[in-house]
Specification:
This protein is α/β, with parallel strands linked by helices. It is built from 8 helices and 9 strands.
Length: about 220
């Protein structure tokens, strides 16, 4: 078991996992919905913070390589699984502060805020590395308020998927599935616009219907 873990978290395996994920995602018939609006904002100097559910990030891996020139940032947990995900994300061109609500979260959140202030672009997993599923954690609101970034939620739909028996019901679109990445309209959160909990709930209400629980 120790040898297996050593292999899985090695640089060679991370490189292999990255290229396998890209190759697998090449099979998707990908459709992007409402991407231009927030991308134009980013190009004109506005800060943008994408966000989605833990369940759905895999299908976006290959396409999100296209955002590497904008120096994106993504906070990832300090767990061993997080090490693998972080390695793949870095190969995709993403900066990866490490931390979560259970360990190293304050430092990683501060690093993400600094990254957004410098480069103006990042992403966030709304329900964190442990859930519960469909519950927006407060980090997204703090980052948006501290940096005046526009929050852009997105969800992923696939006409055929496998769902893992995990806390998030992790979704893996089947090869050659029709996959839609749907970006919602940008939201501006400022301390005088709404209170913290109202902002958090607004995001949750907006994209909770996009959470998938079974194959179509």
């Amino acid at each position: 078991m120790k040898k297996l873990k050593f292999i899985i978290y090695s640089k060679a395996f991370i490189w292999f996992a990255y290229h396998m994920a890209r190759f697998y995602c090449l099979t998707f018939r990908l459709e992007l919905i409402n991407e231009t609006q927030w991308l134009d904002m980013l190009k004109t100097g506005k800060r943008v913070l994408l966000c989605t559910w833990h369940q759905q990030f895999f299908a976006a891996i290959r396409h999100f390589k296209n955002y590497a020139p904008y120096h994106p940032g993504l906070m990832i947990s300090q767990s061993k699984d997080g090490e693998l995900i972080s390695g793949v994300a870095r190969l995709t061109g993403w900066h990866t502060p490490r931390g979560s609500s259970s360990r190293g979260g304050k430092e990683a959140l501060g690093e993400m805020i600094a990254h957004l202030q410098t480069y103006g672009f990042g992403a966030h997993i709304l329900d964190g590395p442990r859930g519960p599923i469909g519950k927006v954690k407060p980090g997204i609101v703090k980052m948006a308020m501290e940096t005046c970034a526009y929050v852009v939620p997105f969800t992923v739909e696939a006409d055929h998927s496998w769902f893992f028996n995990s806390w998030d019901r992790f979704m893996l679109p089947k090869p050659f599935s029709r996959v839609k990445i749907r970006f919602y309209d940008p939201i501006s959160f400022t301390p005088d616009a709404c209170d913290f909990e109202t902002c958090r709930q607004m995001i949750e209400d907006m994209i909770l219907p996009g959470l998938c629980v079974k194959d179509r």
